[in-house]
Amino acid sequence: MVQAHRSGILGPPMSDILYLDHAATTPMRPEAREAMSPFLDGAFGNPSGIHSVSRFAKAALEESRERAAELLGSAHPLDVVFTGGGTESDNLGVAGPALASGGGVVTTAVEHEAVLETARFLARLGRTVGVVGVDPTGRVDPEAVVAEIGAETAVVSVMAANNETGVRQPVAEVVAAVRRLPRAPLVHSDAVQAFVSEAVTLDRLGADMITLASHKFGGPKGVGLLHVSRDVPLEPVLHGGGQEVGRRSGTHNVAGIVGMVAAMEASVRDRDRFRTDVAAVREEFETALEAAVPDVESTVPAEARLVQHSHFRVPGVDAETLLIRLDGLGVAASAGSACQSGALGLSHVLTAMGLDERAARSSVRVSFGWTSRPGDGRDAARAVAECVEALR
Amino acid sequence: MRALVAMSGGVDSSVAAALMLEAGHDVVGVTLKQWVGDDGSLPVTGCCTVSDAEDARSAANRLGVPYYVLDHVADFTREVVDRFGREYLAGRTPNPCIECNRRVRFGALFERMEPLGCDVLVTGHHARVDGEPGNRRLLRAVDRAKDQSYVLHMLRRDQLDRIHLPVGEMTKQQVRAHAGRLGLRTAAKPDSQDLCFVAGDYRDLIRRRFPEADRPGKIIDLDGTILGEHDGTTGFTIGQRRGLGVAVGEPRFVVSVDAEAGTVVVGPRRALASDGCSLGGVSWVAGWPPRDSAVLVQVRYRSDAVPARLVRAGDDWEVWFDEPQEAIAPGQAGVLYRGDEVLGGGTIARALQGAAA
């Protein structure tokens, strides 16, 4: 009889896995783990309290806030609102201003579900919601965004870069165009996917709010932040004890926050190297793949994407089948549009870009990250080519 | 050998996966996601629910085999759900499990087998396959009370070479005991009713999705006498006695439903009896029609097969029962057996009266 297998808490040995799904999540940076460890252990205090145990936790929390503010080029630490992750930050950044003002939202068809579903929620409340399409390269036209804005628009949300395709959006241009309006709405940008390789900060983009998620740049999961000026009126989406100056209630995830900020620091420090080295691995992958599978089609040109993202299809090869085959070889990639059940849905992003269902269902995302090494690109291309060969 | 195991989250398919592993094969577990609610979620009751997919995932984890959920929502919606509404309006009530097996599930699984590098398809159905490759037969399960050969009659003969039904050789009790030894949490899970959500609340489905198919109208007696009115035909199934809201001396049963006209015909119990039925879209898992016209026919999922004579009628077939049968429901499958062997089957087009031509 087969021994019932208790799935090990460690999972598969990472040394055996070729991990090509850094856009889904990336390994923790050692700096994060190290910074977190005291708070997983003795320093367990709740920062909201008057005694010494609380004070220590509070000090760590506020020190993290100051470091984060500095890394984000912000004038004031209170502009950093710690949240439970990217989804929560998007909810707060979109619903917050809309609920505070009674207004609606204008966003794009390629946003993450955290933004699109929040917009749909607002629509159910009777708010005006505008969704702007994109061109075949996945880019939104700033003028089209402006054209969608009405007197009732409270907030505009345009992502810095797309989580599936890696396509970068002209957020700064959107902001500039919006600011020319006599009554400009606020601008929010989901920079969850972009931050690891792009200096997407409020001052650089000119936006009012930016969403970041810790686990995409080497911090722990379940923590994120919304960078937002404390002058921006926000209705909280979580109601309770009034932490984060009333903007986000709930006992602070001290270990998570400390870990996130340590990872952020490491990530910002490592960004130039990342942009060079990871881009080289990605190029190595694309060059090798084109050589091995000449009919491979890139969804958009490399210069439109984040340096770490590859997004392509092999005509006639179903993405789901290819990914399962790759998994069988110990290669972890994705299509970027998995639903809760793990099944691949039809990507709303690719549909918005005008891909037909067949092309969309052939599209695969390969994303590299801070642990990617020279040779990974070549190995990845070899694995994809092997699977394509077997499927033809 | 590498087996593609269709895992439903139930105890049978979990044990089927375990048996393949124990026999030394590689196993890949899959669940077909076939339905999403209006909000994109998986249904919470019936086949392919959220908890079923999680049970399947948990079983696969425990067995240490890879597991994937494959998206077949579009096919299922088109081929089963939408078709169900059209068929209902045309006066037939299909068995959605059979339509799903015929039009979606097996096609998808056999098609994916090779691309996923698998040599054999394994399901947890209670039925058996025996014989040598090229000459296989589909048989009833060892556990007759759990037999599911009825819903497999549409398999093609060549597909029998590539399918393996390991739990069909076991009793349900043995299956549960095996699951218990493996520590599978599905060991004590109640049996599904073999009904997916479409069947479970098909009336709701029609009302929600095809409101135009649930037409109000008259309840009439066999002789055309109007006995009353009703709010919609989906409230009635053939053979139903309760809830007709008509009072006449002798008990009345639903004899037929004309969904298009909105008419429900009722009659005395004897009017439910039919001498035979015609079958359309017949396929022969045995490879060809039997030479001997004496067969057994099963006209519902949960009923016994009864002796009958099989007669060709153009492209279709007629089945004449040795003894009249009650409540023949157009749209259900009529499956033909010789002893334990499934010969083939088709969809009941209509009930027949009189005698064979």
Model description:
The complex is a heterodimer of chains A (392) and B (357). In chain A, 39% of the residues lie in helices and 12% in strands. Chain A has 392 residues and is α/β, with parallel strands linked by helices. A seven-stranded mixed sheet of chain A has the order 2-8-7-6-5-3-4, with helices on both faces. In chain A, strand 5, helix 6 and strand 6 (186-190) form a beta-alpha-beta unit. With 357 residues, chain B is of the alpha/beta class. Chain B contains seven helices and 17 strands. Chain B is globular, with a radius of gyration of 21 Å. Classes of the chains: A alpha/beta (392), B alpha/beta (357). Chain A binds chain B through residues 1-2, 4-7, 318, 320-321, 324-325, 327-328, 339-346, 390-391, and chain B through 18, 21-22, 28, 31, 33, 40-42, 50, 53, 57, 61-64, 66, 68-71, 112, 115-117, 181-184.
Summarize the structure.
The complex is a heterodimer of chains A (392) and B (357). Chain A has 392 residues and is α/β, with parallel strands linked by helices.
Blueprint of the fold:
The complex is a heterodimer of chains A (392) and B (357).
Chain A: E1 18-19, H1 30-40, H2 52-71, E2 80-83, H3 86-101, E3 104-108, H4 113-124, E4 129-132, H5 142-148, E5 153-157, H6 171-179, E6 186-190, H7 202-205, E7 209-213, E8 224-228, H8 254-269, H9 271-292, E9 297-298, E10 309-313, H10 319-328, E11 331-332, H11 348-352, H12 357-360, E12 363-367, H13 376-391
Parallel strand pairs in A: 1-11, 3-4, 3-5, 5-6, 6-7
Antiparallel strand pairs in A: 2-8, 7-8, 9-10, 10-12
Helix pairs in contact in A: 1-8, 2-8, 3-4, 5-6, 9-13
Chain B: E1 2-6, H1 11-22, E2 26-33, H2 50-63, E3 67-71, H3 73-89, H4 96-113, E4 120-122, E5 127-130, E6 137-140, E7 163-164, H5 172-182, H6 197-200, H7 202-209, E8 217-221, E9 226-230, E10 253-258, E11 263-267, E12 273-283, E13 294-298, E14 306-313, E15 316-326, E16 333-338, E17 341-352
Helix pairs in contact in B: 1-2, 1-5, 3-4
